[in-house]
Amino acid sequence: MRRDRIYEDSKFTADFSVEDWNDLIKLKLEKYFISNTLFEKNKEVLRTELINYIGISEKPHYFKLFEWTYELYADCIKIDKQKTIKIISESFQDISSTDMKWMTNVLTQPDYQQFSERDKISYYFKIIDETLEGVFKPRLKLLDKLIRFKLGQNVIDNSNFDFGKIIREFPTEFENEICLFLKDPLFSISTNQWRNISAHKSYVIKKDSVEVKYGRNNIHSKSILIEEFYKITHWTQDIYRSIRLGQVFTNLNYIEEIVTELGGTENLNVRFESALLHITHNMQIVGFEFVSTEELSETFCLNVKGKLNHDLKSSLIHASQCLDQLSCAVYDDEFTKENFKNTRISILDDNLNILGSATIPIDIALKKVKNEISLEEYLDHMKFE
Fold first, then answer.
1. How far is CA 137 from CA 161, 181, 244, in A?
2. Residues 6 or more apart from 20 whose CB is under 8 A from it?
3. How many CB atoms are located within 10 Å of the residue 306 CB?
4. Which of 243, 226, 152 is nearest to 191 (CA)?
5. Which of 264, 254, 263 is nearest to 83 (CA)?
6. In this structure, are residues 26 and 136 in contact, taking their beta carbons and an 8 Å threshold?
7. Those residues with Cβ within 8 angstroms of residue 74's Cβ, 6 or more apart along the chain or in another chain
8. What is the pLDDT of residues 218-242, one digit of tens each?
9. What is the average per-residue pLDDT within 250-262?
10. What is the full DSSP assignment across 130-145?
11. Cα distance between residue 320 and residue 47, in whole Å
């Protein structure tokens, strides 16, 4: 999937205003924050997370799993905040990389809707492997540590544990509460075995079913219907979303302490695509329609259609307010910071003709973000066409 198509499923009705979004966020998500100040500070980020929250809340078993995970973190903070922050911080870089890997999977996925059924199933096995091994396992390792901490057990370094060892030695005290993390809900095959089946291609695709084989010494074989296999794929996605969201809210609550424990922001890496997704998501929420991104020489350009029922001038002025964030997103990623000197937002018509644009030098935008120049000076450097 091309980068300029990754937001096609993020469409919002014009009847739902920014104020409506903020009211819904406050109603549903404020309770997960330890203070109103932190909630207000993260409100823009929460617009994106609200979509994830809604997806989980439609599935009661996974919603309960998410809330249990969140409450586990809260319990550990109550027991020993400093120790819990240290445990979270030790895993923070690995946990952060899971969102980067998830975004990479989105950016590189093919148009599998055009695949034959056999190729589609093979591709879904690849998705299972990438989800369980690449993004779920690091978060499960952190959950393992915090469960042991809550139980008063030794918190061991599990960074070198393979998936099988993590599952086999996972604390059993809360097995009923988190069984969906450890095995699938249809056949009770362990999560690590599904990863192994997918990674080692231990399956045979038949006309109406898939036969999978798993196990190290005692090999098991299971024939599952095609429709059941797709449910397994959805399960892997749902458990990742559930474990992730509980950890996201916790990190937002204690990000200052985590950053301090890690030695400051200079030791943190930011992925450009994830920041771009957040910016574009918020642009669509306030009424713009995403069209594409362009790399024009030394200028990174974001193309949108103007707001409904607004003239070009007001749309462009509103759209230009994202340029400081867009500049930070470019600059903060070491893989993009050397490629661009400017960022631009362009308003397009229905025929994709450019009606107007606003451009800012990235170094000027950074000064504005750091409050090194006034808003007037910032606007003096912005070029409108």
1. 10, 10, 11
2. none
3. 22
4. 243
5. 254
6. no
7. 250
8. 899 999 999 999 999 999 999 999 9
9. 91
10. IIIIIIIHHHHHHHHH
11. 20
Q: Are strands 342-348 and 299-305 parallel, antiparallel or unpaired?
A: parallel
CB 332 within 8 A of CB 369: no
- Least Cα distance to 344 among 283, 303, 297, 289 occurs for 303
- For 100, phi then psi, to 5°, come to -65, -45
Query: How is residue 374 written in tokens?
Result: 């006034």
**113 with 121: CB under 8 angstroms?**
no
**Rounded Cα distance, 161 and 171, in Å:** 15
Position of tokens 């950890």? 247
CA distance 177 to 64: 9
Show the beta-strand stretches assigned E in 226-321: 289-296, 299-305
Strand, coil or helix: 343:
strand
CB atoms within 10 A of CB 20: 12
**List of residues 6+ apart from 380 with CB closer than 8 A:** none
Are 299 and 365 in contact by the 8 Å Cβ rule? The answer is no
- Read off the DSSP letter of residue 183: B
Taking CA atoms, 109 is separated from 2, 3, 31, 163, 227, in Å, by 9, 10, 35, 25, 22
pLDDT(333) > 60: yes
In sequence order, which residues have a C-beta less than 8 Å from that of residue 361 and are 6 or more positions away? 341, 342, 381
Please write the tens of the pLDDT for every residue from 286-315: 788 888 888 888 999 999 998 877 889 999
